[in-house]
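Here is the promised in-class demo. Please do not try to memorize the tokens; focus on the logic of going from shape to residues.
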């Protein structure tokens, strides 16, 4: 099972409201904040919406 380490690298301040809500729903707040989430379809779908704002690394358990 793998997890995803997601880091916000660009601010969501001037993004669309839906993208700002997605950033907040993933648990990201400020630039350079990082969360570790499970690798599943729901997470991947959310990441596709804000791919231009984040960096993603896979973490093997």
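The designed amino acids, position by position:
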């Amino acid at each position: 099972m793998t997890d995803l380490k997601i880091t916000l690298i660009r601010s969501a301040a001037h993004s669309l409201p839906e993208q700002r809500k997605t950033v907040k729903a993933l648990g990201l707040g400020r630039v350079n904040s990082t969360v570790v989430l499970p690798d599943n379809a729901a997470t991947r779908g959310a990441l596709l919406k804000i791919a231009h704002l984040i960096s993603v690394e896979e973490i093997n358990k």
